[in-house]
Each structure stands twice: as C-alpha cells, then as structure tokens.
Amino acid sequence: MLRQSPQKINGNFKGKDIISFDQFSTRDIKNIFSLVPKMRKIALLAKPSKILAGKIIVLLFYEPSSRTFGSFSTAIKQLGGQTVEIHNPQEFSSVAKGETFEDTIRVFEAYSDAIVIRHPQKGTASNAAAVAKFVPIINAGDGTGEHPTQALLDLYTIYEKHEKLDNLVGVLAGDMLNGRTVHSLIRGLSLFKKNTLYLLSPKQLKLSKSDFEDFTKRAIKLVEIEKETDIPKNAHFWYWTRVQKERFKKLKEYEKVKNSFIVTQKLLKKYGNPNLILMHPLPRIYEIEKEVDSDPRAIYLKTEIRNGLYVRMALLKLTLGII
Amino acid sequence: MLRQSPQKINGNFKGKDIISFDQFSTRDIKNIFSLVPKMRKIALLAKPSKILAGKIIVLLFYEPSSRTFGSFSTAIKQLGGQTVEIHNPQEFSSVAKGETFEDTIRVFEAYSDAIVIRHPQKGTASNAAAVAKFVPIINAGDGTGEHPTQALLDLYTIYEKHEKLDNLVGVLAGDMLNGRTVHSLIRGLSLFKKNTLYLLSPKQLKLSKSDFEDFTKRAIKLVEIEKETDIPKNAHFWYWTRVQKERFKKLKEYEKVKNSFIVTQKLLKKYGNPNLILMHPLPRIYEIEKEVDSDPRAIYLKTEIRNGLYVRMALLKLTLGII
Amino acid sequence: MLRQSPQKINGNFKGKDIISFDQFSTRDIKNIFSLVPKMRKIALLAKPSKILAGKIIVLLFYEPSSRTFGSFSTAIKQLGGQTVEIHNPQEFSSVAKGETFEDTIRVFEAYSDAIVIRHPQKGTASNAAAVAKFVPIINAGDGTGEHPTQALLDLYTIYEKHEKLDNLVGVLAGDMLNGRTVHSLIRGLSLFKKNTLYLLSPKQLKLSKSDFEDFTKRAIKLVEIEKETDIPKNAHFWYWTRVQKERFKKLKEYEKVKNSFIVTQKLLKKYGNPNLILMHPLPRIYEIEKEVDSDPRAIYLKTEIRNGLYVRMALLKLTLGII
Q1: Contact (CB<8Å) B70/C98
Q2: Residue A46 and residue B55: Cβ atoms within 8 Å?
C-alpha cells in the first residue's frame, strides 16, 4: 500500500500492512484477542470457513522457518484462502540474474491479495511495504527486526490464562541482551498498566544499556535479577529462553550460572505457584527439562503453538477477510 | 496418540496411527480394498469430495520422494482436505539449532489433523507416533523399516486382477536380500491361504537366513529359484525388482546372471501366461525393457500408481474421514 | 496424449498439449483473448470459480522460476483447481537412482489431470507430450525452446491497449540474437497483417542470418536499426530487453552503445508518444531506469504480469475446464 512508515491501525485493520507491533493500540490488541475464540472454533470445525474465500496469499520465505511457515499456511487454509508458496526466491533465476528486491515484491503483489514475508534481514518487511502498491505486506519475521505475530501470541497466551494484561508479575529468563521475543514481550506488556517483570539472566546477558533506558521510560517495572533465589513466588508467568554457552568469554562463569537457567521440576516446585504458566518461544533445546513437559503449567508445546495459529487467523481476518 | 506400540486396527481405523502393515488383519485389508472403487470414482469426478473437508494434513518429508509425496498430496486433495507441505525440516533453523525430533513432531501436531511422515531412518514413524498426543501419524516410508501403503497397493493390485488373495502363484524377482517391498509382499500374502511364491534371485541376493526362517513359519510356501528356466508358467503375477551390479563381489558372477533378471518380450512369451500381471515397485531402471511397456500385462506405470492413490485415499478416509 | 508432434488447435483446445506457439491459428489466439475479461473478473471475485473444480494439476519444475511458477499456481487456484507442486524432481531419489524422464512423466500423469512442465532443456516439453498417454502437457518454458504462454501474454498486452494486432508499429530493443521472447513476439505478430517492427540492437546482437531469413519470409516488415535516433516516433509499443556486457568482444564497443539501450525519461520524451506502451519480459535489471516505473506507459510491473495470469487462466479453461 502507498505509505511511508507502518500506519497505526487505530481500529481499522482492513488492507493495512502489518510490519511492527508498534502499529497496535491496546484496543487493537483487544480486537484481535476478542476474535480468538471464534478462530479456534473454525479451526476445530470440519466445515472450512469462507472468510478468505477466493483470496490468494503469497508466502514469500527468504529463509526457512517450519514453525512460522506452517502456522501461516495453516491459518490461511483454515480460513478458506489459498497460498502460493515461494521458498528461497533468492536462489531463483530472476533474482540470481540481478532482479531487485523491489521488483520481486511487485511481481508477487500482481498475483496475490497479500504477501506474508520472512527474511533474515532487519527492515525488509518495511521495505517491501514501501514498494507494494496494491496489497498488504505481513511481516513474519525480519531477522533481528520484528515478528509482530509472535509478540501477539505471547501476549494472548498470558491473557487467555489470567484474563487480564495488567497488574501482572512475570519472570523473563535467559538471554535478555539478544532475545527478540523477550524485547517484544516487554514492549507489549508496557502498553498495559502496573506490570512488573523480573529479568533473570547472567550478567553477560542483561539488557543492553540503551534497551534498559528505552524500556524503563515505558509504563512497566523492570527488576533485573541474577540468581534463582531471587525469583518471586507470585509470578503469573515464566517466559523462558535459552542461555547460549558461546555468549560467555569465560567457561567458568557459564558453569557458575548455567543451572540457574534450566527449568526443572525442582525449580518449579520451589519458586513456582499453581497458577503460573511456563512459556517458551521455541525451539527449546535443553533449557527446560523434558520431565517438565508433562506439568500442566508447561504450555509451550501445545497451547502457545495453537494460540499462534489462532492469533494469525484473527489478524488475517481483520486485514483481509471478506466477512 | 497415546500408545506404546502401533495398535492393531481390529476393524476400527478412526484416529489410529498407521505405522506398520502388521497392524492390519485380513478383515482390515478387505475393508480398505472394498473402498477402492468409491475412491476411484471420487478421483475421476469433477466434484471434489468432502470426506476430509476442513482437515489440514502435514506432509513432513525428511527425504525427497516425488512419487510418495505426489500420491499422498493428491489423495488428500481429492478427498477435499488440505496439506501443509514441509520438505527437509532438518535443514530448517529450529532443527538446525538443536530442536529434538520429538519437539518438531509436537509442533506440527499442534497445527494439524494428521501428520504423514517420510524419513530415511528406520523406526522414526513409530517414534513420532509415540510422541504425538493428539493426531495420528501415517508412515510414508521410514528407511529400511516399513512403507505400509506400498504393501497395501501391491496386494490390492493383485486382488483387483485376480479377485482373490489366496491360492495364488507369484514370482518375485531380483533382490530378495535387501528388497523392502519384496519382504512386505511376502508378509502380506502370508496372511492369506495357500499362496506359493517363487523367489528368483542370484545366490548372492537370496533371502537372509533369518528372513527365510521368519517367513517359512508363516502360512506361505516359498520356493527359491536361480534360473529363468525355473519360472513357473502358471504364475498369477510377476513382481520384478532391480539386481544391482554393486551387490556382487565378482563381476563374472553378475555377468552370468544379469540376463535372467531382465524382463523382455521373449521372457514374457516363454514363461508368462495371458492372465498374469507384471508388477514393479518403481523406479524401474533397466530391469524391464521398454518394449515390454506396451504389453497389456505391464501395469507398473499406470495401474499400480493409480492403485497407490486409491489405497491411500481409502486409508485416509477410514483414519480421518468425517463422512 | 497419443500424438507425434504438437497438434494444431484448430478451434478445439480440449485435452490438447500446449507445447508451441505454432499450434495456434489467429482464431485460436482470439479465442483465448476473448476469455480474458471473464478471467480477470474471476480473479477479482471473492467467490472461487468451479472451472477446474476437482482437477489436480502437477507443476513439475525442473528449474526454479518464481514468476512462471507463481503465475501458473495462482491461475489454477483462481479457477478452483488444485496443484501438486514438485520442485527439482531431478534431485529426488527416484530420478537420482536412474529413473528415465519418460517414466517420471508417466508416474505423474497417473496422479493428475494435466502436467505443467518447466525444464532448462529445449525440446523437453515436446518429449513429455510424446510420452504422456492420458493427460495434456503444458509447456512453461523449455530452455532456449518455447514458452508459449509468455508469447500469448505479450500479444495480449498489445491487443488490450490498441484493440488490434495488425497495422502496428513496434520497437524491439536489446538482444535480438539470443532473445527467446523477442523471437516469439516476431513470430506472433507475423500471423497478423501489416505489422512493422524496428529491431534496435548493437551490431553484435542483431538477429542471426538464419532467423532474419526465416522471419522475413513471413508477413511482417522488419527494420534493423542501431541508434536511438532511428527510433520511429509513431510506435504502438516498445518491447525492451537486456543488452549483456559479456556479449561484446570489445569493451569499447559496449561503451559506445550501452546508453542507447537504456530507457530513461529523456528517451521516452524524445522518441515516445503518449499512446505507446513500454513492455519488458522481466526480470528487468538496469535497462529501464527506476524513474520510468511511475510513467503510466510503463506497464511491465503490473499489467503484463496480471495479463500473464489471465492468459494462463484462459488457456487452462479452454484445455481442461469442465464448464
């Protein structure tokens, strides 16, 4: 669509690009969330929906991502739309011959009703949106940039459990320095009131100074902690991410902290409460022990994934739906 | 689904994993076969079926297989279902980062109504089934393990022609030692009565001792032969497979036998009868001469492939169909 | 279908292979074009068409081509058909094991209602058609051979603007020696009356002697020109293609001509007229400057691409449509 930077949604999603979480007001977020129960119903129904009937949506994936690809492909098909799936266009002859990114986008917008784009480079989705004249662009992750539907599904998962997005206490654990999903979640929760987040990470992986300053200007309380004994017992959710060994200069320092950043039954018993939910953006490697999977509070492998599907369906309905 | 080893079907396919041919009783096999005429009709009709309406089935292919992939993709679409197609997930970022096979399966089951899995490693489909809690797993070939729908289509092709699966005489030719499809066919026919199979192969490629012992305990008569002059003239079917040169230690031995294991018009004329069918699991390289393709008994390039489609449609209907 | 060389259409497309532009008479071309408005309407409608309902069409792409792939995939889905998409079958196990091209075609025709084939090697589509016994083959480009739907969309784009295909003046610029699309367009326009084409190219990239002789036997007037000052001001269309530096033996000669073969606002102002259209088969690299994109006469990035979609839809309807 013709525009300079991603437009604010302001209650009207129809035909707009979805590039950044910053486009959403709290009301927009609530709008999306209010559609989730209906989307879940559609996904479980045998009868396909007609919400995207006759719509062709290009999935333009410059890097493989089975999870996000599968989720968008499923969401579109559950709504009765169809996909044209392009994997790794950069290896295709036209691009190899030197076709610009801009021309590639304009080619695919000529075929389709929308383009869902995934790209390893920050800013690409926004560039695509600046080029596309006729159809909306939906950002499915642009490198270290944004992945707005991931942020939405994380927020929704908390909302679904606790029926609110304010007055929450959360623990974010792992890599605060580089974690894109962690940053999005902080930004998301700061739109609402009186939330407190405990950021559990080794020194080396604390928020960068600039991120810390940026976030503390917002309406959110951040408490940086370094030891598991600092975990508050009244948390509504734990959001766990991976601490990578290779981020440490000294192996000894890694050895010292590594066990504080692995969720075990013991850790859950000691610091958790019956009401919390244990989240993870996935892929999970070793930072949550397998024995924890069967705990009813562990919702990363089923509820979160399905919420990702429903939230994407809701967003597609609002942006492209004909009914 | 929650289970330890593949469940017996026992007349009820609904929601069950399809991992191994051993899950089927003769009655289950007949159930599948009885649906084939209806499936053929659906495939030829212009109106899409609603048997899988609203269903999303993930095709999770860890190795490429155009034939099996195409057949399952077509079967699902002919029944009105939709596919989410994932090629080579092991190259995708999540798996590359170290995500376990188990987590990958649980991610895809959260999106879908079933997972059709193809994997180069034996036992993988069964592992997937042990992990998947909510949707059935269908084995589309796990290396040297099983490929139950291939076995079904071979049996059906014989059944369609001869209207019975007992009192048959068959010739299985080529590599008895390593041939997965040959082993499945022997196992399949041993479920029925009074079948005799002549196993034509060079010495080096005879059944292993353990396979021979296993098979001869079953209700089937096996006759190992080494020369084309031993081919019985009353065979109901020839099931030809490839003899690979590289399996021989001495080239001379290969040279001695190689011509006995190629189907020519001459061979068909000398040892065949008007009523037999010439089958091949494909790909066929040189072991059936091209001139034979036009013989009406040569059914590998059309009838067998289409039967594979119909048998898969029937199995999907029984396992997942809503009507 | 059983046949030796591509059959003339002669007013009846149903079930025929589409291999070469030479199969079409002017009446056949007009038939296709007369359907385009209806196809456009279908593409814009929310309700999916039923013209290809229940049809499965295999897209068998031996080389990647995002543009043609996307166009055919979209065309089929807009008409209510379904695709089975096979990328790079040559890397798949069956073909890697030595399966012949002929067997691959026969496997896929057993699943499908038609095969759209793309292959880097000239003559492959025709070979596929000679093998396929039951379903039509549609050529989506066979190397330096043909790409009949590209030729159709170029002709249609001119026809749509000028409402005729005779008495036209056109400028074809760039590489006349190697340009497949240029040759097709000359051949296409020579089916109609009193067309004049100015072929603007550096000496090194003029038509080959044999092509020139072939074309001048046809009912078309060709004028070879070498300088932009020779561009006629009354052209109905400019059809621009790329001049590749590496085609020149002497860099100096390239330097001398290169600026004559780049479309700029200035060039358009000096030699263009308000009524012409500026076409390009894409990908466009640098031979049309970006500033030209916003000129209303520049139709390569939207109108041509969409016409490609509509023309393919029309052809599929005529060849395979059930209504």
Answers
A1: no
A2: yes
Domain ranges of chain C: 21-147+307-320, 149-305
Q: Is residue C207 over pLDDT 80?
A: yes
> How many helical (H) and strand (E) elements, i.e. helices and strands, does chain C have?
11, 9
CATH topology of domain A149-305: Rossmann fold (3.40.50)
DSSP state at residue C222: E
Closest CA to B78 of C113, A309, C176, C228: C113
pLDDT digit string (tens) for C31-64? 999 999 999 999 998 888 999 999 999 999 999 8
Nearest to B96 by CA among A246, A67, A147: A67
pLDDT at A267 over 90: yes
Rounded mean pLDDT of chain C? 93
Contact list in A for residue C48 (CB cut-off 8 A) is 53-54
Q: Which residues of C touch B64 (CB under 8 A)?
A: 91-93
Active-site residue flag, C97:
yes
Greatest pairwise CA separation for chain C in angstroms? 59
**Taking chain A, what is the end-to-end CA distance rounded to the nearest angstrom?**
21
CA-to-CA separations, A287 to A161, A171, A197, A279, in angstroms, rounded: 23, 15, 20, 12
Residue B278's H or E segment, with its range, is: strand B277-279
Which three-class secondary structure state does DSSP give residue C214? Answer: helix
B301 to C106: CB separation less than 8 angstroms, yes or no? yes
Q: Tally B–C CB contacts below 8 A.
A: 76
Question: Is A8 one of the annotated active-site residues of the chain?
Answer: no
CB-count burial class (<10 Å; 0-12, 13-18, 19+) for B131: middle
CATH no. for A21-147+307-320: 3.40.50.1370
SS (H, E, C) chain A: CCCCCCCCCCCCCCCCCECCHHHCCHHHHHHHHHHHHHHHHHHHCCCCCCCCCCCEEEEEECCCCHHHHHHHHHHHHHCCCEEEEEECHHHCHHHHCCCCHHHHHHHHHHHCCEEEEEECCCCHHHHHHHHCCCCCEEEEEECCCCCHHHHHHHHHHHHHHHCCCCCCEEEEECCCCCCHHHHHHHHHHCCCCCCEEEEECCHHHCCCHHHHHHHHCCCCEEEEECCHHHCCCCCCEEEECCCCHHHCCCHHHHHHHHHHHCECHHHHHHHCCCCCEEECCCCCCCCECHHHHHCCCECCCCHHHHHHHHHHHHHHHHHHCCC
Interval A6-50: pLDDT, tens = 899 999 999 999 999 999 999 999 999 999 999 999 999 888 899
Radius of gyration for chain C, computed over Cα atoms and rounded to the nearest angstrom: 20
Query: Residue B242 catalytic?
Result: no
Same fold, B21-147+307-320 and B149-305: yes
Q: Do C84 and B70 touch (CB under 8 A)?
A: yes
Catalytic annotation present for B280: no
What is the count of residue pairs from A and B with beta carbons less than 8 Å apart?
76
Tell me: ipTM over 0.90. Answer: yes
> Whole-angstrom Cα distance, residue A312 to residue A70?
11
